């Protein structure tokens, strides 16, 4: 399954970074200096591998979307908000698809917390930041493949048979 996600790539202390803009961080509910990082990844439900990414520059264009609110049964004041750009999907389908894409949230947590995605690169060059993201994602892929080989008893041939079915 292919998964597309956007995440904040913060550059709060760098006012001279090329193409820097204020962007809304939907996870922290505030504006920050940085970029939206759009990531395409592949997952089989057990392993997530990033395929490509791009740092987006603000264009000011609106996109139609459908919003689904899910209330926490234990705490009535808390809820989760899911947004889908496929407005034709039912609320149940949006919730089902979100459950399958949880691996990308784990991916970003590992990249930001352990692989220093937004802290290691101090460059003000847009190209250098893009290269840094590629290096961090490559490190993550190497760790994912090693983890998969250590924990999955199936051979690579068996895995390819699963994907071709």
Largest sheet: 4 strands, antiparallel
What is the number of E strands?
A: 6
Portion in beta strands: 25-35%
Distance between the termini: 13 Å
DSSP helical segment count? 4
Report the radius of gyration as a whole number of Å: 18 Å
Order of helices and strands: EEEEEEHHHH
Low-confidence stretches: none
Helix content: 25-40%
Average pLDDT number: 80
How would you classify the helix and strand content by structural class?
alpha+beta
Shape type? globular
Domain count: the total is 1
Keywords, please?
four-stranded antiparallel sheet; 4 helices; 35% helix
3D structure, described in words:
It contains four helices and six strands. The chain has one domain (2-164). The two termini are 13 Å apart. A hairpin with a 4-residue loop joins strand 3 and strand 4. It has 165 residues and is α+β, with helices and mostly antiparallel strands. Strands 1, 2, 3 and 4 form a four-stranded antiparallel β-sheet that branches. The chain has a two-stranded antiparallel ribbon with strand order 5-6. The protein has helices at 91-100, 102-113, 126-151, 156-164, and strands at residues 2-10, 21-25, 30-43, 48-56, 66-71, 79-84.
């Amino acid at each position: 399954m292919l998964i597309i996600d956007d995440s904040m790539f913060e550059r709060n202390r760098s006012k001279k970074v090329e193409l820097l803009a204020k962007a809304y961080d939907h996870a922290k509910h505030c504006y920050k200096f940085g970029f939206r990082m759009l990531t395409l990844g592949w997952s089989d439900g057990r392993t997530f591998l990033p395929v490509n990414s791009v740092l987006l520059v603000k264009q000011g264009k609106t996109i139609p979307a459908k919003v689904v609110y899910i209330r926490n049964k234990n705490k009535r004041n808390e809820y989760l908000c899911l947004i889908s750009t496929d407005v034709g999907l039912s609320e149940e389908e949006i919730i089902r698809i979100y459950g399958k894409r949880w691996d990308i949230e784990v991916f970003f947590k590992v990249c930001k917390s352990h692989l220093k995605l937004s802290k290691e690169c101090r460059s003000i060059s847009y190209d250098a930041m893009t290269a840094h993201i590629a290096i961090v994602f490559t490190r993550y892929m190497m760790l994912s493949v090693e983890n998969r080989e250590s924990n999955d008893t199936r051979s690579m041939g068996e895995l390819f048979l699963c994907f071709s079915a």
